[in-house]
Amino acid sequence: MSEVAVVEAVNVLAGEPSKIVVLSSGKHVEVRVCSGRTLPLMLSLVGDIAGDLGLSLSDAGGIEEKLLSKLNDVSSLLKLIAKHTQGVYEVTARTTSLESADAVADLPADDLMSVVVRVVEVNKSFFTQRVLPIFQKVKPAN
Fold it and tell me: What is the pLDDT of residue 134?
């Protein structure tokens, strides 16, 4: 059994999202948890998207449900993706083993979506369980 397969088995048994994406070419892409170097860029991207969707810190409890309800308009969703494409490429490059944002942009669309979704899955709990609660504690009272 390869080292990649062992790591994947441990992740699955631990209930964590897989940190490896196998591209259509057979190449393995490692997905990493956001680092301190990447955090400002990721916070900026997440903040911009949340702002465009009209989400606020008070939405944190049911953020997923509120996000899904706001993404039901296909036209708005497509415009949102187009508006933030470069930021998504940059964050994806910094949180994966892909060489650059250009390498991310050059992926076939199906592979790109698989990698981006995995980046979100791997980093979601950090934002929902650590970052949002910190900001909720320090937000000004209304």
Answer: 76
Give me the domain span that covers residue 34. 3-138
* Residue linked to tokens 């592979």: 111
**CB-CB contact of 21 with 114 (8 Å):** yes
Determine how β-strand 28-30 pairs with β-strand 20-22.
antiparallel
Quick: pLDDT tens for 31-64. Answer: 999 999 999 999 899 889 888 888 776 655 666 6
Residue 30 pairs in a beta bridge with 20
User: What domain count does the chain have?
Assistant: 1
Nearest residue to 98 (alpha-carbon basis) of 111, 110, 85: 111
pTM: 0.76
Mean pLDDT of 101-107: 97
Residue 48 neighbours by CB under 8 Å, 6+ apart: 84, 87
